[in-house]
Amino acid sequence: MDEPFERVVAQHGATVLRVCRAVLGPADADDAWSETFLSALRAWPDLDRGANVQAWLVTIAHRKAIDVLRAAQRRAVPVAELPDAVAAPAGRDLDLWSALARLPHKQRHAVALHHLGGLPYDEVAGVLGGTPAAARRAGADGVATLRRTYQATIDGGDR
Amino acid sequence: MTTLDAPVTPDDLSRLHADLAARAAREGLVDVAYRTLDGPLGPLLLAATPAGLVRVAFAVQDHDAVLSDLATRISPRVLAAPGRLDDVARQLDEYFAGRRRAFDVPLDLRLVGGFRRVVVEHLADIGYAHTASYAAMAAAAGSPRAVRAVGTACALNPVPVVVPCHRVVRSDGSPGQYAGGADAKLTLLDLETRVGA
Fold it and tell me: Which residues of A touch B70 (CB under 8 A)?
């Protein structure tokens, strides 16, 4: 690529932050955001001109977010038992990040990559494993749950 | 596609950008750092490589186009990272306020070669509040007949103001052309005349 990298940050900075927050929550997302753009800046001159920059960044962001997650888990003190997902309190009083945190793992990641990162489901499947159809189902199920738990607007229909 | 109303504020992004610029600079990943500086000539774009100041551009030259050109000719690792430009920005502020007569910053003249480079290197010999004709500059650069080429070299000076191509005027004393526009050239010549040699 021979475009100034600054434009990449300006154009895709918000999307990358949403993906990082969806996977990590707002408190730990900053680190993943910085790691994503540092890594992208390093590789930028060698990226093919025809590459889909947003998809490239979202894939890096997801990987960096997983790295941050694993590092946090290594540091964490183990506890006896944790539920997979915490039941949502009654009413739509969660913010998006808390609502996402309560989704099952695969749904949370499918929503992060597809609905917040704009990654097509066949590429979501490439990142998460499984088939595109399964990725689509996870994304749709995740959004259906968010509709019940997340207070703010969700526009449009599922695909 | 379903869109989620996911809040991200401009403050979040500017804080993250500042942190990225600092970390990228520390890791040697910023091949071209830039910022803009407001002054009497309108916003100036200032760009530097690790070697030194590489480009100064006026708004009429289209800052976006200049950044694209730097990305192509030097490196696409171009980032708004103001730290590297602190010195030159401060010196330009002092110059515009009439409190500085010469610049002391490292220059990276990689964008000029050949005869144009020779001319640009001789521009620094014209002192504050003095002028030289295009013909005199051609003679100083060792090619007395290359008057037009001197005009081109001045017009394409990559670091105007800091390297004073505005001090090169026509033989009849009229200011002549300037990359920042004839008015910008007059503003600089008037400033220097007012402050005095």
Answer: 4
